[in-house]
């Protein structure tokens, strides 16, 4: 399995483990919902998404996903449901993505974001453009590639069609999809652009993934050292979905009152 980008794995230091996994085809799931078949087309995947997945998607990441063989993957496509208003932080991420992406279709990105909003329909259309682009190179979603839950692309090196960087650059980045997705998810998950780490810790406590007396200072030290106790959450258990939801979207996942939880603007 190869991953071109993965902010989740980079954040928790598990990228090396991903490279040791077996091919994705035929993998099991975390037990927290049914994954679309890896052999399905993008359209078939979207149609087969379970209601429980859709509920989770609407709550947090706004995409349907599964944990397959060590990797968090998007398993349904064109299924965005929320409209987003781009705040200062989301606009900053968008600008950084556009600036750092060679040959990006800036005119398209601007056409979507010039009004300061990205609607669910616009995200679905942007994702369809990406899927269609890969299809033009003989690659089928959920067979030859998957979108990473939190960004980037995951490919199956044992599939019948091998991805190369030129195809990914064109279909994932050059057409503007990744830039739009990055800013859109930030706007949905973190509209005020606050530091999410204190909320992540509180969310982990809410779901009993860490002890209630686990201090924020110790949490930060463990994160920085790569020794976080969260690294041991078993992907084969439902607790793993709670962990990923807290990691990616703590503001919408935590169950405790956020009043008094420390935060600072990014």
Series of secondary-structure elements, N-terminal to C-terminal: EHHHHEEEHHEHEEHHHHHH
User: How confident overall, as mean pLDDT?
Assistant: 78
- Largest sheet, strands/sense/barrel: 3 strands, antiparallel
Instruction: Please list the strands of the largest sheet in the order they lie side by side.
Output: 1-7-6
Q: Rg from C-alpha positions?
A: 18 Å
Helix content: 40-55%
- The proportion of residues in beta strands is 5-15%
| Continuous helix count | 13
Low-confidence stretches: 2-60
Sheet/helix structural class: mainly alpha
Number of strands: 7
Shape, please? Answer: globular
Straight-line N-to-C gap: 33 Å
Structural features:
8% strand; 266 residues; disordered N terminus; mainly alpha
What does this structure look like?
It is a single chain. With 266 residues, the chain is mainly alpha-helical. The protein is built from 13 helices and seven strands. The strands form three sheets. A three-stranded antiparallel beta sheet has the order 1-7-6, with no helix packed on it. The chain starts with a strand and ends in a 13-residue tail after the last helix.
Entry summary:
The protein is mainly alpha-helical and 266 residues long.
Write the layout of secondary structure elements.
Blueprint: E1 2-3, H1 7-12, H2 15-18, H3 42-48, H4 51-59, E2 65-68, E3 71-74, E4 84-85, H5 88-100, H6 106-113, E5 117-118, H7 120-136, E6 145-147, E7 153-155, H8 165-174, H9 177-189, H10 197-206, H11 216-225, H12 238-248, H13 250-253
Antiparallel strand pairs: 1-7, 2-3, 4-5, 6-7
Helix pairs in contact: 5-9, 7-8, 7-9, 10-12
